[in-house]
Predict the structure.
Amino acid sequence: MTPRVKIISRMLMAVITAAVFVTDQVTKALVESRIPDRAVVPVVPGFFNLTNTKNSGAVFGLFSDSPVWWKTPLLIVISAALLMAVVILVIRTQHLRWEMSVGLSLVLGGALSNLYDRMRTGLVEDFLDFYIRSYHWATFNLADSAIVVGTAFIIVQVLFAD
């Protein structure tokens, strides 16, 4: 990979990361300003609602009921350490296939956005509520979606690389 191609590739990764971060922050701000706490707005009855919930735990609300004082600082430290590991991986890797580049960019953007929320307020805004009858998936946000999709890109690249 020529230095010019590497620079362009990294610039595209930065653009994707920034787009995920900004989109997630804007959607969270819209939800916070337009939907009262814990309110539910049906979008597709029987399948999808918008809601305004705060998650003090980890992914999908894990540990959100834990009252320990060190939970938020620990989540911030773990998130920051993992983000730094991904950034170091990107910097040190000479050539990343497009699947890995896109996957890492999506994961970085989503993780940065959720980390920013947790550092700012100690909570992460979740608002996407999918369900069938009384069975609800954990409420999540766009950053969580980016992390899941990005991870899928990375897994596909790892499993099917030459």
Remarks:
- Residues 56-61+68-162 form one domain.
- Helices lie at 3-34, 71-92, 98-121, 142-160.
